[in-house]
Each structure stands twice: as structure tokens, then as C-alpha cells.
TrEMBL record:
Functional summary from the UniProt entry: Proposed core component of the chromatin remodeling Ino80 complex which is involved in transcriptional regulation, DNA replication and probably DNA repair.
Keyword field contains Cell inner membrane: no
Cellular compartments annotated: Nucleus
Protein name: RuvB-like helicase
Gene Ontology annotations for the cellular component aspect, listed alphabetically: histone acetyltransferase complex; nucleus
BP-aspect Gene Ontology terms: DNA repair; DNA repair-dependent chromatin remodeling; negative regulation of signal transduction; positive regulation of DNA-templated transcription; regulation of canonical Wnt signaling pathway; regulation of cell population proliferation
UniProt key word Repressor: yes
Length: 461
């Protein structure tokens, strides 16, 4: 099997287009050079210790030295766990892979839970491949081909190439002549010749020949005559993920599966061969491994099988840094009847470092809401922002963020440009937060379908 990896480096950019989402205001972790969190920076507010801790982890990842570590972000809902992970992703740079998944994503009918986790892990490991080649690049001055007089036997010829600084004559063999003829190379073309393979590529026509009307068509591309030496070294570096290499080399799917995401399960033999090939490349100095980050949000949704799989996977030689987030306290581990902190088995917890997130102060809530207003292009009066902050404090930050969109719509209906206190109040009365909604249910539960009295509800829990 030949391993191909070079075709897909453009694929990933396409999948990362995002609209205004819950975290689109986050552009980084907002740290200074000594990794202290700035009060408000890069869309990030407060939560200083967790941000600083994540900054330390970021530094370690960037150095490329750690792999197979696990970090848990633990804290109440709405305390910025997902936001911090997004901030980390933004600061990693495009060369380090970052994979985001929610714990519940592993439950699909198409593949087993461990396959889903394996794919996520392999999506988070980058392979940086270096290719160095020697090329000859120049403008064709003359091609001279001598056919044997008898009509049979090898052709020989001479090719004159120039740059702006030099000109050289090369002897041509039979194979090169065929290549030149196939590419229809003629004087005035700028070409490159790969010295190792003899492959000839036409870059375009030299500007100096722009007036040779008989040799140009409407599609002709004009390029500058190359500068400097005719012989050049060219190094190409691209980073692909292990998962991308898996998919490309999996006979059943082919690399187009990368676009649809419809990759199905990948055979263990394929992976084994790829692992071997990659270590070979590594020994030969052709490739480096770049451990990236796998972020598993809502990690309490994983079950005992997944957790023990992760235990093992983290010990693997090629493992990414796994960051998890949860808002659960002491609760049942899925798939068992045992309880454990965060619903995560103790033996996995023992391998993790835990970063707590804490509830926000009112001033911080206000700052976050202000940033969200800017993100959603919503002008809000300072009084309205104050009311909204109070709402965030008494209900939840998420609910208050929702009210920005709704109150700005109400304001637009009223043909005013600035959201006023009344608009916020209106939105507040139209849309219930969780507390008021349960209050409402308690008052009117008799009128709803499938009403269960409280004792019954306790039993089923
Ligand atoms: N420190 C912060 N700076 C800026 N925005 C924040 C910050 N913390 C939270 N937010 C924003 O507040 C909202 C809620 O935060 P987030 O989704 O990160 O909470 P969470 O801790 O992941 O909650 P859950 O446990 O429910 O998943 C998001 O829109 C997020 O971008
Ligand atoms: Mg979250």
C-alpha cells in the first residue's frame, strides 16, 4: 500500500466556516506574555485562574512536548468552560489540530463508540510532512531536437533555459524530449523540471513574449521570468491529521469521504500500516508528529466503556492532549450504578488535572453582555444593559444573552435604534427563564398532559 497524504491540506479550511454562534466573540484566551489573564481581552472576561491554567497548558502544547495528558474543566453551567476551550483553539495556530466533540456524539448507529473515539483521537494528531526536491526553473530560450537521419533510434537534443541572471544549455535524453513534446513546451514558456522524477510543469508564458500573438490563446497565463539560479531547492511542508491519512488510504471510502464526513468505520489493519509508515517517516526525518487537542464537551455523557477506552488511549505513544468539560457534580457513571465525582470513574480522574471555573461577579456579567451586544450588532442603552445584567445575575448568563437578540428585534419593530429598558422588560415578559417556567409548571401542572405527582416523579428519577 502506498500512503498518500498530500492531497488534503486544503480540505480542512472549508469545514471551519462559522456564523455568529454562542462563542463567536471569543478570539483567544486574552493572556499577556507572562500568561496572566487580562481583565477584558480577545472577547474573554474574568475567570482569571481557569484562563491562566489553560494558558499554561497552551504553552506546553505549543512546545509540542506533551501528549497523552488529560485536563478537566469543571464548574457550574454557564461559567465559560466551552468558551475557554474555544479560546484555546483560537490560540493554537492553524498547524495544530483541534477537534471538538460533544460526549453524546459517540452514540451513533453508523459506528461503534470506540471507533468514534478513535477517529476523534486521530483527527487530533497532526503529521507534519516535509518534502524537499531539487528543481530547475527557467524560461525556455530554445529547444533543439535532432532526429536520427534513419528515422529510428533515440532522439537527442538541447534545451536552453535562462533566468534574469543566467543562461544554461542542457542535453536532452529521449524521455525528456517526449515530456517536452507532450507538454507542448516552446520557446518563451516558463517551466520547472523536477530533477528527481524528470517531471516537467509549465508555469505559463514569459511576459517578454506577450506579443507573440500566434503562440498565445485566451487562456494563456503570463508569468515573470524567474530570478537567480536555475537550480533551486524547494521544501514543501504540510500538516495533515492521522485521520485524514486513514481515510485517504482506506480503499472502501476514498478521500472524497472527507468532504461528506461519511467515513464509516476504518479497518484496524489500515491504521496499523499507517502507524508503521508514520514511524518510518519519523525515523527518516521526513515527518514530525504534532500532538493536537481533542476537546470533549459534556463528558459526563460518555459511559464506562468509553472511559476505560480513554484510559488506555491516553497511554498510547501517539496521543493528543484531551480536554474535557462537565457541569455535573457527584453523579452516576453512565453504564453503571456507581456514583463518582463528575460522573467520571476515579481511575480516569486520577490521570487528569482539574481546572475549576467559578460563577461570575456582576461586573463580569455586564462586561460579557456588552461584548455580546457588539457581536450581535445591537446598540443598547446603559440603563438597559444594567437591567440585563441584573437579569443575568438572578437567572442565568445564557438567558440574558438570549434576551439581547429578542429585545433588539423588539426594538427594531418599534423603529428605534437603541434597545431601551422597556424593550428588555418586554422580552423578559415574553420569554420565560428556567426558574419562571418551572414555577409556571408547578402552578398549572394539573392542566398538562402526562402529569405525574411528585412522589411518582421521585421514583422514576
Ligand atoms: N469569561 C467569558 N468571557 C466571555 N464570554 C463568556 C465567558 N464565559 C462565558 N461566556 C459566554 O457565555 C455563554 C455561556 O458560557 P459557556 O457556554 O462557555 O458555559 P459552559 O461553562 O460551557 O456551560 P455548560 O456547563 O452549560 O456547558 C457563552 O456564550 C460564552 O461564550
Ligand atoms: Mg459548555
Amino acid at each position: 500500500m502506498s500512503i498518500t497524504a498530500s492531497k488534503v491540506h486544503e480540505v480542512r479550511e472549508i469545514t471551519r466556516i462559522e456564523r455568529i454562534g454562542a462563542h463567536s466573540h471569543i478570539r483567544g484566551l486574552g493572556l499577556n506574555d507572562s500568561l496572566e489573564a487580562r481583565n477584558v481581552s480577545q472577547g474573554m472576561v474574568g475567570q482569571f485562574r481557569a484562563r491562566r491554567a489553560t494558558g499554561v497548558i497552551l504553552e506546553m502544547i505549543k512546545e509540542g512536548k506533551i501528549a497523552g495528558r488529560a485536563v478537566l474543566l469543571a464548574g457550574q453551567p454557564g461559567t465559560g468552560k466551552t468558551a475557554i476551550a474555544m479560546g484555546l483553539a483560537q490560540s493554537l495556530g492553524s498547524d495544530t489540530p483541534f477537534t471538538l466533540m460533544a460526549g453524546s456524539e459517540i452514540y451513533s448507529l453508523e459506528m461503534s463508540k470506540t471507533e468514534a473515539l478513535t477517529q476523534a483521537i486521530r483527527k487530533s494528531i497532526g503529521i507534519r510532512i516535509k518534502e524537499e526536491s531539487e528543481i530547475i526553473e527557467g524560461e525556455v530560450v530554445e529547444i533543439q531536437i535532432d532526429r536520427p537521419v534513419t528515422g529510428v533510434g533515440a532522439k537527442i537534443g538541447k534545451l536552453t533555459l535562462k533566468t534574469t541572471e543566467m543562461e544554461t544549455i542542457y542535453d536532452l535524453g529521449n524521455k525528456m524530449i517526449d515530456c517536452l513534446m507532450k507538454e507542448k513546451v516552446q520557446a518563451g514558456d516558463v517551466i520547472t523540471i523536477d530533477k528527481a522524477t524528470g517531471k516537467i510543469s509549465k508555469l505559463g508564458r514569459s511576459f517578454t513574449r506577450a506579443r507573440d500573438y500566434d503562440a498565445t490563446g485566451p487562456q494563456t497565463r503570463f508569468v515573470q521570468c524567474p530570478e537567480g539560479e536555475l537550480q533551486k531547492r524547494k521544501e514543501v511542508v504540510h500538516t495533515v491529521t492521522l485521520h485524514e491519512i486513514d481515510v485517504i488510504n482506506s480503499r472502501t471510502h476514498g478521500f472524497l469521504a472527507l468532504f461528506s464526513g461519511d467515513t464509516g468505520e476504518i479497518k484496524p489493519e489500515v491504521r496499523e500500516q499507517i502507524n508503521m509508515k508514520v514511524s518510518e517517516w519519523r525515523e527518516e526525518g521526513k515527518a514530525d508528529i504534532v500532538p493536537g487537542v481533542l476537546f470533549i464537551d459534556e463528558v459526563h455523557m460518555l459511559d464506562i466503556e468509553c472511559f476505560s477506552f480513554l484510559n488506555r488511549a491516553l497511554e498510547n505513544e501517539m496521543a493528543p492532549v484531551v480536554i474535557m468539560a462537565t457541569n455535573r457534580g457527584i453523579t452516576k457513571i453512565r453504564g453503571t450504578s456507581y456514583k463518582s465525582p463528575h460522573g467520571i470513574p476515579i481511575d480516569l480522574l486520577d490521570r487528569m488535572i482539574i481546572v475549576p471555573t467559578v460563577p461570575y461577579q456582576e461586573a463580569e456579567l455586564k462586561e460579557i453582555l456588552k461584548i455580546r451586544c457588539e457581536e450581535e450588532d445591537c446598540e443598547m442603552s446603559s440603563d438597559a444593559l444594567l437591567v440585563l445584567t441584573r437579569i443575568a445575575n438572578e437567572t442565568s448568563l445564557r438567558y440574558a444573552i438570549q434576551l439581547i437578540t429578542t429585545s433588539s428585534l423588539i426594538c427594531r419593530r418599534n423603529k428605534t435604534t437603541e434597545v431601551s429598558v422597556d424593550d428588555v422588560k418586554r422580552a423578559y415578559s415574553l420569554f420565560l427563564d428556567e426558574n419562571r417556567s418551572s414555577q409556571f409548571l408547578k402552578e398549572y401542572q394539573d392542566d398538562f398532559m402526562f402529569y405525574e405527582n411528585e412522589e411518582h416523579a421521585m421514583e422514576t428519577n
